[in-house]
Amino acid sequence: MSTDATAHQTGLLERLVRFSIRHRWMMLVLTLGLIGVGIWSFTRLPIDATPDITNVQVQINTEAPGYSPLESEQRVTYPIETALAGLPRLDYTRSLSRYGLSQVTIVFEDGTDLYFARQQVAERLQQIRSQIPEGLEPEMGPISTGLGEIFMYTVDAAPEATKPDGTPWTAIDLRTLQDWVIRPQMRNTPGVTEVNTMGGFERQIHITPDPSKLVALGFTLQDIVDAVAANNQNMGAGYIERNGQQYLVRVPGQVGGIDEIRNIVLDRRDGLPIRVADVAQVGEGPELRTGAATQNGEEVVLGTASMLVGSNSRTVAQAAAAKLQDANASLPEGVTATAVYDRTGLVERTMQTISKNLIEGALLVIVVLFLLLGNFRAALITAAVIPLAMLFTITGMVRGGVSGNLMSLGALDFGLIVDGAVIIIENVLRRFGEMQHRLGRTLTREERNDLTATATVEVIRPSLFGMFIIAAVYLPIFALTGIEGKMFHPMAITVVLALTGAMVLSLTFVPASIAIFMGNRVEEKENRLVQWTRRRYEPLLAWSLRRQNWVFGGALALVAVSLLLATRLGSEFIPSLDEGDIAMHAIRIPGTGLEQSVKMQLAVEERLMQVPEVERIFSKIGTAEVATDPMPPNVADTFLMMKLRATTTSSRNRSKCGPTS
Length: 661
Fold this sequence. Notes:
By secondary structure, the chain is an alpha+beta fold. The chain is built from 21 helices and 18 strands. Among the domains are: 3-43 and 374-525, Multidrug efflux transporter AcrB transmembrane domain (Multidrug efflux transporter AcrB transmembrane fold, Up-down Bundle); 55-144, 2-Layer Sandwich (Alpha-Beta Plaits); 204-230 and 254-285, Multidrug efflux transporter AcrB TolC docking domain, DN and DC subdomains; 582-657, Alpha-Beta Plaits (2-Layer Sandwich). It has helices at 3-22, 24-43, 69-84, 114-128, 171-186, 211-217, 221-230, 258-262, 276-279, 313-328, 343-373, 376-400, 414-417, 419-439, 445-473, 475-478, 482-507, 509-517, 528-546, 548-566, 594-608; strands at residues 57-63, 90-98, 101-108, 139-140, 149-157, 192-198, 204-209, 235-242, 245-251, 265-269, 272-275, 280-285, 291-295, 298-307, 335-342, 582-587, 614-622, 635-642.
């Protein structure tokens, strides 16, 4: 850099510093504005445990009842994948074909707007409906991610609870309450995009024909289907007017119960009607379900609330919990909906850890400042940079769409943030003391202001260079892409924002505050701690300068030993998060039926409930209603919710749950 360019930059910095000192009260007003905006931004900062590393994807699920995996692949999956080829910004597609289900996942390039991607997929789906078998309806999955399952609840009835007719509540009844009472209310929760249901049985009316009677009377299965469909609809015939009044003409033909289905007429023979009841049995029956849910050794109905992409997980989970309490008031006596998993707990514990570390770090820095600077007001001005830089950072995070999590907020270092302010204030105090000693009197306000600007400019360039060097260390992180980029970009963005805020405050707030609050006489002496440190450091420094080769060789040896130790260090992609609970996979022999899996899972839960540290166990077996995570019926996701560690003898006792799985 040329001398002219350096002088020009120094002149710009000096003008900025002198402007801040000259308009010092305006700087404080702007600082108050920063505080207000920062507090407002803090209330809108998305909070989560870790960054969401899910890529931009759209899921297409197609239910194909009766189709084998091979048929699902050939007649459903392959046509959909082929039709989606060539979409703008498409990265790749992957698919899964199971019995009765086809799932195609379309992954787009990073940075693609999710709603744009869904619009492109929806347009292609309209074009390919004629290419797949009639009656199959491809549907896009919810607008959520792999970390979107933030709230789960179960619907169950007390053992002694009965319906108004005196009969006990069945799995069909609980599923009906979930589908028609609880789920509609939960879907109205702000930030919830889908409520997925698993377990119980959907209420169905089964018509079971007798083949011998059909043959004897000359009917086919299609005759029954056509008759039921034709006699289960309302017909409108416009309206008529009589005496100036309009009357609607309609024929209500929708069946209202099982008996009406039984009485549907199939045909008339010799003047006698032949009804459905004459050739078939009609009654309620369970569906052919693909998944089940259990809790504490009993079958239940499980609901899972999925969060809309980009929402605040803590806020949405809290709103879902409140909505579930409202839904409980709508349930019959003896039936309850109980929350079994709430993301709020993990987020709160993570935020407590982050807050504890940040507060302890800030207090440690502040204590060191008060001990070393030796001036209460100077230390107070320097310490004020910490919360102000934090508010600046939070404002930038909200504007940039960065959530507050373990990776972003946990990366802040307050020692780096106050580095520039410490250098400036230390130099200003030194210059104040020297000038007072030379003049033999207290400085006037004009002299203090001018000296503050001069002392600030003397050290501002090396201070800024130090901050730029620290920020440059994080620049390679911005080059990361994919999962690595999604994980570590928040950390780099947060640190750079904090350093930028500290730099701006060092040029504006710190000089203005010195000009306002650093009046009267300034002591020009070192405190006892600094004096004690100096007395021991000066001999060590002199010895190092006399034996430079030894010091240099020792440094190289230390670096070599450090590199050797670094090769033996373990590594983790992300910091470990202990949610305090256990997730267990129960896998049975392939081909195991769903009902058999349920029986085996109930036995597993009964055994695990004998462990005293276990508070609750619930499981998801097979595939839910919305197949976001399709699993065969022989696989169960088991969640062991442990008691609070303070109430257990030792967290190590959780290992007792291992052998059972």
